[in-house]
Design goal:
Elements (H helix, E strand, L loop, with lengths): L5 H8 L7 E4 L8 E2 L20 H9 L8 E4 L11 H10 L3 E6 L6 H7 L3 E8 L4 H7 E2 L3 H17 L6 E8 L7 H10 L4 E3 L1 E2 L16 H18 L2 E3 L29 E5 L2 E3 L20 H5 L2 H11 L5 H4 L18 H20 L1 H12 L6
Parallel strand pairs: 1-3, 1-11, 3-4, 4-5, 5-7, 7-8, 7-9, 8-10
Antiparallel strand pairs: 2-6, 11-12
Helix pairs in contact: 1-10, 3-4, 7-8
The structure holds S-adenosylmethionine and iron/sulfur cluster (2 copies).
Amino acid sequence: MFYLNNYHIDILTRNVPCPIRLNVELTTNCNLKCVMCRGSQNYVEGNKAGRHLTVEDFARILNGIDLNRLKVLNLAGSAESLLNPDILPILALCRENKIIVELITNGMLLTPQISKQLIGYSSEIHVSFGGSRRETFEAIRQGADFELICKNIKTLSKLKKENNQRYPQIWINPILMKRNIQELPEVIALAKELDCHGVACSHLIVDSPELIRESLFFHKQEANHYLQKAEEVAKRDQISFVRPAYFSQESDDDGKRETIEAWKTCRFLWNYAILGVEGLIPCSGSGDLKLDCDGNVIRNKFMDIWNNGWYAGMRYKLLTGNPPQCCINCTDPSVKDPNHIGSYFKEEVFSDAFDYAKKELTRSQKGEFDQRECSVLSSNEHISG
Ligand SMILES: C[S@@+](CC[C@H](N)C(=O)[O-])C[C@H]1O[C@@H](n2cnc3c(N)ncnc32)[C@H](O)[C@@H]1O
Ligand code: SF4
Ligand code: SF4
């Protein structure tokens, strides 16, 4: 049993230290149109439009936060950070301030010049991947050049070796779906060839109706089969492999949204902040959660917003077990149940996905689904070597 007085509550709600992890969106532009990504709507020919964080504004943000507390600066956002015209001075500023950078990139602009700025000062670089074959890769990550991305990764690995550095760890990150799952074991082999540390894969989250059938939730046997093959290759090649949990046969497809109480393990509000180009975004667990104030950390001090009435009120609600509705419905991917249909589809396509699930289940009961799955499995057995 815990007993909290007003002094304790004040410390936990309005005197919270600077977060240890900060995600910063450096640009709203993207140079690819990946089929599964809303960021593809940010595609801008020639990088002319859109918004970028300038190095001056980045310096202002750093001035407003406690750099002794901040452990990781994550550069991912919902676009392509390396398109920011100030990327080199921004990385140089991170180096000067000894800030560890974690980068998630599509790899197209991971030039030797940028790689050199990251060596020794970045913990991890994740290069998002489509598949092990050029055709699959470029069909998913539209506008990408498979050969160039592999070459960029290889150059980064080489520079790391030449500089005798263990960091950054280089990871390849495929988003798993029906059209690329068969290539996962080969992606691991390719990671070895490119001298990467590991492969970190995750499932496709579907937010448009045309991708519903791409979800591996409808291809559980096949997904488990290739995850297992990939695991074997990873072991053989000594590649770190981060994968989603295996599907269980009893995967829950009851048509209800998840009821996991994600708010009880909320990783935002106390530890983790997201800075969009427009300002502070409270979390990635709910699109409905909006600050009730100006969240622009260039006009306002970060710590003033971080400990304002809105944040204090939200923290109080979670600590006292009275979360608002958006936290009850939290969709933070870090707390999702991998065997639940609700983990794979955004709210807007969920009812279509559920209808599709019912149809697939009927086919499966009639035997059609299983047969088709099995024929896919046997026609791909060669991959296991
Ligand atoms: C939005 S991107 C931004 C960073 C960079 N542009 C990139 O592609 O790595 C961040 C990650 O989200 C992944 N992603 C995009 N759409 C997704 C979806 N519908 N489901 C799961 N992951 C997705 C991308 O593959 C990428 O690894
Ligand atoms: S490169 Fe990244 S942000 Fe751009 S469309 Fe692809 S996944 Fe989305
Ligand atoms: S919706 Fe609520 S519980 Fe979920 S991440 Fe956001 S603040 Fe935390």
